Amino acid sequence: MKLAISGKGGVGKTTLAAALTRFFACKGYRVFAVDADPDTSLGLVLGLPEECLGSLKPVVEMREVIAELTGGSGTFFSLNPDVDKLLQDYTLTYGNISFLKMGGVKQGGSTCYCRENAVLNALVNSLLLRENEIVVLDMSAGIEHLTRGTARGVDVMLVVVEPSVVSTRTARVVEKLALELGVPLVKFVANKVRDGRQEQFLREHFSAEELIGTLPFQEEILDLSLGREAEEPVVFQEAVARIGNYLLASKE
Question: Is the pTM of this model over 0.85?
Fold first, then answer.
């Protein structure tokens, strides 16, 4: 299964991506955890050794490697570079988890991002063609990754939504773009739900078939998202397990 996790900034995409990565790994799957968020915090939330993460360079910052993969520094470059060696040399493997961080897009007014985007797309496509493993893509906030087509070809787009009007609207935009890219399955997960009133608000915006899980707001999860030592509460683990099992069953 190839899974992309998206949504508005701050809704808890990385927390859910890390939790599902751990769940699948504990189930015995080999999991590629890909941090495609410019904040590159997935590795910390996964609890990977900080000293190892510090030495792992984001793909988009590998200027010489990117130039070599795309055919040099001239005007013309390959749109389909061979990235197998990149996967071998620039992933951090920890148990059943192989971690890769892509890095962020350039800011406005900077030079063209075309070469880096070609490598990123080829890298994602390479991961998406591999069998007998699970790929979890922690996407950047908002919709830019969808407009660039980076998530094209995933099996499932999981959109994280919190109890707010802005979050629900962004979630529907993500759904629309994902379907236009040809993503076969788009589902939603409610996060940071504090009470029945907030849960009811979300159920008014998403049907029972669309909303496959609800994660309660808990301080321990906030600590995990900040990279602090904390145990996942049992109620959170059970909610993640239900989501994970649903996703596994959807691919059978």
Answer: no
